[in-house]
Specification:
This protein has 118 residues and is α/β, with parallel strands linked by helices. It has helices at residues 29-43, 62-77, 89-97, 110-117, and strands at residues 2-5, 9-14, 17-22, 49-53, 81-85, 105-107. The mean pLDDT is 93.
């Protein structure tokens, strides 16, 4: 059973980590706020261990990049971790170009993400 299900994100518990799936193609201003708020509600009770499935994302403007950075920082400051998986090659290229891949843990699949956050 899911922890949170909305238009923008769904969250479920896998052991002691939250697996969150982004349900939109683009994280702009509105989506960014909702996703960060809802993910915070789901992740806080479980120590901010978050595996984020980005398979649906096709565009990640600067607001979305900022949201990922903020989420990563929040997870770390609360003693948890964030790992993002299923990124489109184009988005991965942007993260590498902006050197955000040094701040955000990026892995190939759900299993690797769960391993990275535990």
């Amino acid at each position: 059973m899911g922890l949170i299900q909305s238009t923008y994100i769904s969250c479920e518990l896998d052991g002691n980590a939250v697996v969150a799936k982004i349900l939109v193609e683009k994280i702009a201003e509105r989506e960014s706020q909702v996703i960060q708020n809802e993910l915070g509600q789901a992740a806080a009770p479980f120590g901010w261990k978050v595996a984020l499935d980005a398979e649906q994302l096709t565009m990640l403007p600067s607001v979305g990049l900022g949201a990922l950075v903020n989420l990563s920082k929040t997870c770390k400051s609360q003693g948890g971790r964030l790992a993002v998986f299923n990124l489109a090659p184009e988005i991965l290229d942007v993260l590498k170009l902006t050197k955000l891949d040094r701040i955000i843990t990026i892995v190939k699949d759900r299993e690797a993400a769960l391993k990275a956050v535990r």
